[in-house]
Each structure stands twice: as structure tokens, then as C-alpha cells.
Amino acid sequence: MSPLLELTAVVELPVRRWPPAVGDGLVMDPVAEEAAVAIEFAGVPHVVMLATPTDLEDLAVGFTLSEQLAAGPAEILDVNVTWAEATATRAVHEPVATVQVNLPASRLAEVFRRKRNLSARSGCGLCGVETAEQWARTPQPPSLPWALPVAELQAALAALAEAQVAGRLTGSLHAAGWALPGRGLQFAREDVGRHNALDKVLGAVVRAGKNPADGYLLVTSRGSFELVQKALALGVGLLAAVSAPTAMAVRAADAGGLTLVGFARPPRHVVYTHPARLAGSAA
Fold first, then answer.
1. Cβ(96)–Cβ(50) under 8 Å?
2. Where do the structural domains in the chain lie, given as residue ranges?
3. Topology adopted by domain 150-277
4. In 76-114, which positions are buried (b, 16+ CB within 10 angstroms) versus exposed (e)?
5. H helix runs in the chain, sequence order
6. Any catalytic annotation for residue 127?
7. What is the pLDDT of residues 270-282, one digit of tens each?
8. Which of 124, 127, 244, 279 is catalytic?
9. Phi and psi at residue 45, in whole multiples of 5°?
10. Which of 13, 63, 191, 263 would disulfide-bridge 196, Cβ 3.0–4.6 Å?
11. pTM over cut 0.85
């Protein structure tokens, strides 16, 4: 297997701009990369998703925990990424990444029971869930003793925008960030899928030996239901989204004890649930 199969977040492709600045308008333009990523447990396929092919170990760890396929980070014994070329009978053979996640044997029975074996688009949230009950998970009640100053939230949002390098180049990637009160943005990850970006940043936090519940989450997308669920699955108490939430997301955040912030674009934001965690919002 050639290392050349590994992909980056951004590639340059020839495009024609109109109106052309010079000549026929042919220029090289940065475009977001996308690849099929398969997550397997004990060699058994669980899910195939389209994702930005970077930080895949973070993605797998975050996905495993936010989907509650493991009880905690200690159950994730190992994560390995391999690349191969897809052999589909078509003109272009795309590279495919396989991420093997090793869990204790005692956990695998539950994972196999929930096995989804699906092909998920990068914009997919609940794709492949087999029954209505599967998405109604019981969250961990957040327990945060602090009230975050608005200035800190705005500074973290500005830092996330600065960290969104591939997104600025291509205009087609989401970003997610994790920040600590009093310390600002600590981790940021990008992906073509908003839920993938969130899983990546949650995985990065956990792999660094930190507890996601100690901080709060920022996303450059809408505040959708599955993002609320993923935040609650790891005990996070505040999620701020650059765009609007959905009504289902607001109801889930309210029931789970999550402070959900939408339209978070300094100097303004809208608090939908549990305003006491954001200093000054309750008043």
C-alpha cells in the first residue's frame, strides 16, 4: 500500500473563473478533499462515512464515545488507520481509509448489537439508525460550576475562526473547537461534515488526556440535534453554534441540561436554554 494514497484536507484543481481576470480564466483553486472512512470494531465494519481525511484517529475516538459505543476513554484500547484503493468498477478509484478501534470483548457484544453498517454522507446526522429508540439516548447531566463571561465566549469564537485554515481556503469545511474557561480555545478540528468535526475535536480532547466536560464546545455550523446529543454524551454543558439551532436540538438541550447558544457571531448571540452558564444572559 503506497503512502501516496493518504490524502490531505485541501487539494488544488484547475477551474475557470467568470468573468476571467486574465486569459481564459483558468486558474488553480483550493478544493476541500473528501474520502470514504470506514470505522471497524474487532475487524467488523460498523459505519462508512464521508469525511475530510485528516485527524482520523481523533474522529474514531470521538465517534466511539459520542455514540456511546464505549463507556469511557479507558475502554478504547487502540486505534489504527490504514489506507487502500477502492476497487469499484469506475473510472476513478478513490482511496479509502479504514480505522480499526479495539475495545474490550465485554463491550463488543453491545457494539455489534447496534452495528449500523451504513454508507453515510458528510451531511448525515442520524443516517442508518434502525429504530426511533436508538437516537433517544440518555445523556450525562452536565455539572459546570462556572458562568462563562461573554467576552471569553467571543474570544474563543474568534480564535476558532482563525484556526479554520482549510475552511478559509475552500469555503466548504466546518470547524469545531473545545475551550476551557479562563484559558480559551484549546483544540480545533475541521471536516466537511459538522458532526465529524465535532467528533474529531472530542477525540482530540480525550486523546490528550483531558475531560471534555471541563470545557465547552464551539461549532461553525447550525446547532443541530445530533451535535447536542454528542455534547451531552460526554457531559459537556455548553455548546455555541455560529448558525441557528433546530427546535429538536433546543428541546434536547433543555431536557439534558445543556446551555445551547445560536447565532454566536460576536458581538451578538442568542441563548436558547439554561442561560445561567453564560454570565449576564440569565438577567
1. no
2. 150-277
3. Cytidine Deaminase; domain 2 (3.40.140)
4. beebeeebeeeeeeeeeeebbbbbbbebeeebeeebeee
5. 56-66, 105-113, 150-163, 165-170, 194-207, 225-233, 247-256
6. no
7. 999 999 999 876 5
8. 124
9. -60, 140
10. 191
11. yes
